[in-house]
Amino acid sequence: METYLKISQVGKQFGQFTALNNISLDINKGEFICFLGPSGCGKTTLLRAIAGLDLASSGTIEQAGRDITYLPPEKRDFGIVFQSYALFPNLTVYENLSLGLRNQGKSVAETDSIVSQWLDTIALPTAGNKYPSQLSGGQQQRVALARALSLSPGLLLLDEPLSALDAKVRSHLREEIRRLQRKLGITTIMVTHDQEEALAMADRIVVMNHGCIEQVGTPQEIYQNPSSRFVAEFVGQMNFLPASIVSEHQMRIGESLLPLPAAQFQRGEQVELGLRPEDLHFLPAGEKSDSSVLVRIDDLEFQGTFMRADCQLQGAHQLPTIKVDVPIRETRNLGLSRGHYLQLHIADKHTHIYR
Ligand code: ATP
C-alpha cells in the first residue's frame, strides 16, 4: 500500500506542557483514519499540525512525499471541516461554495457547474440562494463538507464534524461522509472522542492518550484485541475484575480458581481481567464448568436485542459488579431473574489480562 501521509516523531510543546509526544504514523492513500481519545489527549493538536494551523515542535510530516512540516496552511493540500460549521454567515450557500473555486482561478461557468454538482451531491439542489442561518445544523455541515471537497484536495481533515448534531442527523451524515469518501477515494482523517463513531466509520483507528498513540488498528482489532487497559476501557464496554496468579495454570478471582489463559504471568502477580459483557454467558441451571464462577443476579435491564444482567460474584462482595449481555432468545431457557444464582462461564479466548 502506498503511504500518503508520513508522520515521524512529531512532538508539540505548549510552554512546559507536552501535547504530542513523539508521534509516528503512516497513513495510506485513500484510507479513512479516526483519531480517537478523551478530551485533551492531543488529537486536535495532531490534526492542526497536519494542517499547519499549529506547527509541530519537533519531527516531520510528509504528504505525498513532500515535507510539509513547516509550510503555512495555504501552501498545503487539504480541505477541513470543523465542529462549528464555519460557513460565512453573510454569504449565501452558493457564495460560500464558489469563493474557493474562484480563488483557485476557475471561470464563472466552471464554478457554477461545480457548485451545482456539489449541491446535488449533498441533496440540497435548491439551497444556493439561502443563507447558512436558514439551514439546519446537518445541512450546514453538508455545505461545509461540499465546500472542502469541491476544491479537490488531496487530504480531507474532519475535526469532530458530527458532534454538534443530534443523534439521527449524525448517523445519517456519518453514512453520507463515508459514502462520499469511498467514492472519491480521498485520504481522510477524522478527530472524534466518540468510540462508536470511530468503530463505525474508520478503516483504522488511532487511539490516543496523554499525547501518545496507545494503539493503531482496524475497528475489529481495536475492539477484539485492545492492547492496553486504557484502550479496553475507552472502546466498548468492558468489565474489569482483579485476579491473582496462583500458579502457571491457575488464577483466583474472589474465592474461585480458574484456568489461566496466558503463560507470561508469575505466581503471586496481581492482574486485572478484562471481560466484554457479550463474551460472558450463563450456564443452564445445574451445570458447571472448569471456567465458571457462581454469581448472583442483582439487576436486569431490557435492551431490545439483549438483556443486560448485573451480577455479583459470590463470597467476594468487594468485587465490582459484572455486566453480562444475554441475547433475548437465550433468556427464556435460563430463567433469568433477580436474586437467582447461576454459573457464569468465562471463556479463555475472550479473557484479556492486563498488568
Ligand atoms: P478535545 O476533544 O477536548 O478537543 P483533544 O484531544 O483534541 O481534546 P487538544 O485540543 O489536542 O486535545 O489538546 C491537547 C492538550 O494541549 C490539552 O491539554 C490542551 O489544553 C493543550 N493545548 C491545546 N492547545 C493549546 C494552546 N494553544 N496553548 C496551550 N495548551 C494547549
Describe the protein.
With 355 residues, this protein is α+β, with helices and mostly antiparallel strands. It has two domains: 232 residues, P-loop containing nucleotide triphosphate hydrolases (Rossmann fold); 116 residues, Nucleic acid-binding proteins (OB fold (Dihydrolipoamide Acetyltransferase, E2P), Beta Barrel). 26% of the residues lie in helices and 34% in strands. It has a six-stranded mixed beta sheet with strand order 6-7-8-3-9-10, with helices on both faces. β17 and β18 form a beta hairpin. α3 packs across α4. The longest helix is centred in the middle third of the chain and has 18 residues.
| Oligomer category | single chain
H/E series, N to C?
A: EEEHEEEHHHEHEHEEHHEEEEEEEEHEE
Ligands (ions, cofactors included):
adenosine-5'-triphosphate
Helix content: 25-40%
How are the strands ordered across the major sheet? 6-7-8-3-9-10
Separation of the first and last Cα atoms? 35 Å
Radius of gyration over C-alpha positions, nearest whole angstrom: 25 Å
Task: Offer a quick outline of the entry.
The protein is about 25% helix and about 35% strand. With about 350 residues, the chain is an alpha+beta fold.
Record the SSE blueprint.
Layout: E1 3-14, E2 17-28, E3 32-36, H1 43-51, E4 58-63, E5 66-67, E6 78-81, H2 93-103, H3 108-121, H4 137-150, E7 155-159, H5 167-184, E8 187-192, H6 195-201, E9 204-209, E10 212-217, H7 219-224, H8 229-234, E11 239-245, E12 250-253, E13 256-259, E14 270-275, E15 280-282, E16 292-302, E17 306-313, E18 322-327, H9 328-334, E19 341-346, E20 352-354
Parallel strand pairs: 3-8, 3-9, 6-7, 7-8
Antiparallel strand pairs: 1-2, 1-4, 4-5, 9-10, 11-12, 11-14, 12-13, 14-20, 15-19, 16-17, 16-19, 17-18
Helix pairs in contact: 2-3, 2-4, 3-4
The structure holds adenosine-5'-triphosphate (ATP).
